[in-house]
Amino acid sequence: MIMPVSVEYRQEVLKKVRETHGSTAKPREEAVDLDRELASLYSTLGLAWLAQSQYDSGSPFRGYLYNVGFDTYVTNDGVWLYSSSATTDGALLWTLQKNGQNLYLSTFVDGTQMYFNWRNSTGACKLYPTYDPITVNRWISDNIFMMLNPSVNEQIGTWSPSDNELYNRANVVNTDFRFSYIPQESLSADDRLIYDTYLKENSSG
């Protein structure tokens, strides 16, 4: 989970990093804590919505899956997936990538890479360590898309207008999604340091 931080805290951490970099003294082991503090500034980075042209490029993007109908981000309760986080602070951080005709959505939980998947028997969406094909079968607008399980030709959405658990079923609603990501091309030097440190600290979880 990524916790929100204040502007003052961001400035304080960046100041400590600059002082450490500028010092001729050998860093102490406690400097590891400074990496964690720097990574905690991740929530201060600006976000943008992924566009269809970016998705079609096949490049990987790190960010958050957002359900338009519930106006919330996708998070988990154990292995089960829900659209229930009002902000990115409690949302799952995904890597999204188009590969051929398939959509890959993966994340890390306790050091294990997990994929957006579902139970074959019930259709309940869950995190699973292996991948089953998903496609983006329709773009509603330049940054709103729909996801489909092509093996059974069923959409992914929420169980009902009042139940935010994600399912892969013919009767689901709220099937429109967006993907919120950090546009790396516009990062400042400080933002880049925060971004790279966060990915390093979370490379396996």
Give an overview of the whole structure.
With 205 residues, this protein is of the alpha+beta class. The chain has 2 domains: 59 residues, no CATH class; 133 residues, Trefoil (Acidic Fibroblast Growth Factor, subunit A). α1 runs antiparallel to α2 and α2 crosses α4. The termini are close together.
What is the percent of helical residues? 10-25%
Specify the CATH architecture of the largest domain: Trefoil
User: What letter string, H or E per element, gives the SSE order?
Assistant: HHEHEEEEEEEEEEEEH
Largest sheet: 9 strands, antiparallel
CATH class of the largest domain: Mainly Beta
Summarize the structure.
This protein has helices at 7-22, 31-39, 52-56, 189-201; strands at 48-49, 61-67, 72-77, 80-85, 94-99, 102-109, 112-118, 125-128, 135-141, 144-149, 154-158, 166-168, 177-181.
Write the layout of secondary structure elements.
Elements (H helix, E strand, L loop, with lengths): L6 H16 L8 H9 L8 E2 L2 H5 L4 E7 L4 E6 L2 E6 L8 E6 L2 E8 L2 E7 L6 E4 L6 E7 L2 E6 L4 E5 L7 E3 L8 E5 L7 H13 L4
Antiparallel strand pairs: 1-13, 2-3, 2-5, 2-13, 3-4, 5-6, 6-7, 7-8, 9-10, 10-11, 11-12
Relevant terms:
205 residues; alpha+beta; Trefoil (Acidic Fibroblast Growth Factor, subunit A); nine-stranded antiparallel beta sheet; four-stranded antiparallel beta sheet
